[in-house]
Amino acid sequence: MINESIMRECEELMKKGSTSFHKAFAGLPSPRREAVHVIYAFCRIIDDSVDEPDKSPYTIHELRWHFTRLEEAEGHFIWPALRWLFASFPKLTHEPFLLQMQGQLGDLTFTHYETMEELESYCYLVAGTVGEMLLPVLREDSDEDVQNAGISLGIGMQIVNIIRDVGEDLRRGRRYVPLELMRKHGYSQEELESGVVNQRFINVIEELRREALGWFEKGLAHVETYPPESGLAVELAAAFYAAILDSVAEAGYDVFRNRAYVSDEVKLRMLGRTAARYASRLGGRPGKAAVL
C-alpha cells in the first residue's frame, strides 16, 4: 500500500532536484510513477551526501549502513519508501543502489580523471546504475540488450551533467573532463582552472557531446519494446537532456559561469512532438501522456 504522505515527500524531492526528470516521467501510470519518484529521491539523497554534506540528513557512510539494514531503518521518509519499492517491484535488486553509493564514495577521493575509460567507469557507477534501477519499474521483462540500453542512457546523461557542470565541479575541486581529451585538443589544466573558453576548449566539449549522443543512441535502441507510457517517458528524458547540449552551445560554451538549462517552452514543444508519435499506442490521447 502506498503511503501518500511519503510519496509526496519523494516527488517533491524529485521536483526540486530535476524538473526535467519529473516532467518526463509524469505520464507514467501508478505505481510506476511513484516508484520513479522513490528511486530519484534516494539517488538525490546519495548525491547530496557527497556534494552538499552540510544539507544532507546522512553521510554517504550512514546511508550505506542503513540501506544494508533496510528492514530496520527508520528516521527518514526514504526508508519506508524504499521498503515499498522493493516489495512492489520484486525484480528490482539492491545491487545497483550499492554500486551507485560506491561511485559516489569515489568522489571523496578520486577527483581528477585521466582517461575516457576512467570517466565511463565512473558514469556507469553513478548513472548507468540508475538505468538498471529503472528497468524493472518501467517494464515487466528485460534481456541483456535492453539492460545494456538502459545503462547506456544513464551514462550519456551523466556525460551531459559533466559538460553542464564543469565550472561547478571545479569549485568543488573536481575535474571530470579527462586529461587525455584535453591534451588531444591542446587545452591545459591551467586554462581550465582559469575558465578560458577558446576553440580548443570548444573542441573538448564537442567531443564529449558526441560521446554523450552516442550513448543516447545506444540507450534508445530498444525503446519501442517498452510499454508506451514508459517508452514516452524514456524518450522525453533523453530529449530533455540532449537539449542541454544545445543550450551549452547557444551560450557560447561558457560552462564556467553559466549553467545551461532547457526552458519549459522548449520542453513543451518536445513533449508535443514525442507524444504525437505515441498517440496511436496511447489510445489516441497524446495530451494525457505527460503533464508539463
TrEMBL record:
One of the Pfam families matching this protein, by short name: SQS_PSY
InterPro entries noted in UniProt: Isoprenoid_synthase_dom_sf, Squ/phyt_synthse, Squalene/phytoene_synthase_CS, Trans_IPPS_bact-type, Trans_IPPS_HH
Pathway per the UniProt entry: Carotenoid biosynthesis
Keyword Transferase: yes
GO MF term set: geranylgeranyl diphosphate synthase activity; squalene synthase [NAD(P)H] activity
Alphabetical UniProt keywords: Carotenoid biosynthesis, Transferase
GO BP annotation list: carotenoid biosynthetic process
Keyword Cytoplasm found: no
PANTHER family for this protein: BIFUNCTIONAL LYCOPENE CYCLASE/PHYTOENE SYNTHASE
Protein name: Phytoene synthase
